[in-house]
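Much of what follows relies on a compact textual record of a protein's fold. A record is reproduced here so that you can trace the correspondence yourselves:

. . .
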Amino acid sequence: MAVAPPTGDRASSANAPARILVIDDDSCVGAAIQAILDRRQCETVLASRARAGIDMLERSMFDVVLIDIFMPGLSGLNAIEYIRHEWPIPIIAMSGFPLRTLEDTVDHLSIAARRGATLCMRKPFKPSQLIEAVEWSVGLRRHAEGSIH
């Protein structure tokens, strides 16, 4: 499916604030992530469902997507696959579910990586871990943009 190029005034310079899209159905998690990233002068946009996040990506430019993999409606896993196919953007997959349990031998974060997640993080994570992952991903994105121009 062809998608029109997103609109948005995000400058690709290293000095421009990073634009981060956080897709998580838990509003408390989204607010916590936003508070942490706001202190780092990031512009953080929240979406409570995967489809809403994809709609935002179609309308605006972002440096990084953080996405929960378990959400109602379109799952984060399916959204990761779609986003990876449509946009060259770093995707950080997040999950609060255990990586493995005795009953469930599926490693959901590994599936997220196979579907296109750039990084995977287990919730809860420390603010320093979030900041490190986002800063690395923004650097990756901006390096890729610089090599295109």
